[in-house]
């Protein structure tokens, strides 16, 4: 039987309880995915309410983790379960701390270097092998569905945004880039979603939006995250280390605006 969900305790469905060892679970405060995240010393469990209006699901994250595992370091999938009200995804816990951790940010050059290297390696994967499509045709369709369903939090827009969700979507449709530079993208490569262990990158997390898309879908969110956590100086350094010859600043602005709808 499944116990009542609580903000103070993790109640697992029986199939996950049988495969996960008894542990003290701690709820992780950071993150904007809409899912609760719980961790023990060895495992992580994500819990998300089932909502027919929400396209993204933990099932999609499970599929992407399994595809990415032989290619780049990511958590191992332990189990996935669905109850009447929730989805549960259990994974191994990567050793280390997020790149956004204050201890990691004490070494800003290392942070931007690891971030740039991780994205270069991910973006070098052959797109012919990737079964997940997150190109603009797909992303804009998903964004339109979210706007129509009232799922966009306009209060969470960047401070300089003066548009409604409908206004943001109309701007995106009107200014859509004519050409996409398609690669395998993470989908949300902000600093909390890369785990560092000492001087080495331990792996990538929160890959539920991974798929084939313009490389700027990643560069925009990574750039914004470095700017928020460090400074404009290091955000520029990140782009230099990734490769300025590949960067289109107008596309970075476009994909930052697109992310407002997710």
Question: How would you concisely characterize the structure shown here?
Answer:
This protein is of the alpha+beta class and about 260 residues long. The chain has helices at about 15-20, 60-70, 100-105, 110-125, 135-150, 165-175, 215-230, 230-245, 250-260; strands spanning about 25, 35-40, 45-50, 75-80, 85-90, 95-100, 180-185, 195, 200-205, 210-215.
Verbal overview:
By secondary structure, the protein is an alpha+beta fold. The protein folds into two domains: 14-92, Phosphorylase Kinase, domain 1 (2-Layer Sandwich), CATH 3.30.200.20; 97-259, Aminoglycoside 3'-phosphotransferase, Chain: A, domain 2 (Alpha-Beta Complex), CATH 3.90.1200.10. Helices cover 37% and strands 17% of the residues. The chain has helices at 14-19, 58-68, 102-105, 108-123, 136-148, 165-174, 215-229, 232-243, 249-259; strands at 26-27, 36-39, 43-49, 77-82, 86-92, 97-98, 182-185, 194-197, 200-204, 211-214. The strands form three sheets. The chain has a five-stranded antiparallel beta sheet. The chain has a three-stranded antiparallel beta sheet with strand order 6-8-9, covered by helices on one side. Strands 7-10 form a two-stranded antiparallel ribbon. The chain is globular and about 50 Å long. 35% of the residues are buried. The model is unreliable at 1-7 (pLDDT under 50).
The CATH homologous superfamily of the largest domain:
Aminoglycoside phosphotransferase (APH), C-terminal lobe
Within the largest sheet, what's the order of strands?
1-2-3-5-4
Say what oligomer this is. Answer: single chain
Number of helices: 9
Helical content stands at 25-40%
How does the helix and strand content classify structurally?
alpha+beta
What is the CATH first-level class name of the largest domain? Alpha Beta
Give me the CATH fold name of the largest domain.
Aminoglycoside 3'-phosphotransferase, Chain: A, domain 2
Net shape: globular
Strand coverage percent: 15-25%
Please give the largest β-sheet.
5 strands, antiparallel
Count up the domains.
Answer: 2
Query: Mean pLDDT, rounded to whole units?
Result: 92
